[in-house]
Amino acid sequence: MRTETAPLDRDNPQTIANRLKIRRDNPKTKNQAFLLVEGSSDQNVFKTYIDDQCCYIAVAYGKLNVVDILNKLEKMGVKGALAIVDSDFDLFLSKLLNIDDLIYTDTHDLDTMILQSPALGRLLEHYKVLGGNCALLREALLRCAKPLGHLRLLNERQDLKLNFKSLDAEDFDYFFDREKFTVNVGRMIEKVHQKSQTNLSAYEIESRLNRILKTSADDLWILCCGHDMVEFLALILSKWCGHDIYRRINNELSDMVNIPRCDSLEDRLYLAWDCVFFYETKLHKSIKLWEVTNAPMKVYKRYDS
Fold first, then answer.
1. pLDDT tens digit string along 122-159?
2. Are 58 and 41 found together in one domain?
3. Strands (DSSP E) along the chain, which ranges?
4. pTM: predicted TM-score of the whole model, two decimal places
């Protein structure tokens, strides 16, 4: 049975909380645990491990909504709700929330957790890319994502009003150096600046960023955004292996899981991240601890580790 998902209600956490309260009051679903996640991609990852008879996944559409719904459920007296959110920059900004029913990802987000895991090497090995050796690939991904990660964090800290949401694959290709597997910082800031409503010049932004890049020693797996790394992964694969292998990975993996077609490289990485890799994470161990604390509520399927 496919995991049941919450109705789409992006703008009203109260409505989602009310629907969960109704499920708790329903004799047929009163013993279900509730798993709150930020988005549909998170849901697609976790539904692999979740027992949908015992646990109901609710998509909140954003971290703030997740926390809001969790708080509303507590006020309603609804127990047995667990929330999983991306760490993002919360550690750097001292914004980590100490809430019993809220768990953060081990690294910046789920994408970075997957890229850090053996799932990346497994995917490369299956399609005979780079001999399955992804150490150099991970190094290149972190090197490329580092400047953009620092720029995102700088924007959060100093409220520079930069817009990153409009960055697309063509923009990443514009500031990615295909020969050195690095990022042209000037070109990167040029693209971000063009899409932003900021009072700062591109020159001033670059000056501030360069000062940080010269001195920073932050953990890049926590700093770098997974989406950025996947964008660079697509560019690196096309450079090293050509577009033919990129299309072959897409088509073959889609056939392997019996779905019409994977929509993105993220989807293919999610499918390569099986339970063996997930069970090695701190996130998994935190969920297991939550189950013990909140017994008899269950999240995982019975055959989990």
1. 878 766 776 656 888 999 999 999 999 999 999 999 99
2. yes
3. 33-37, 55-59, 81-85, 102-104, 176-177, 182-183
4. 0.89
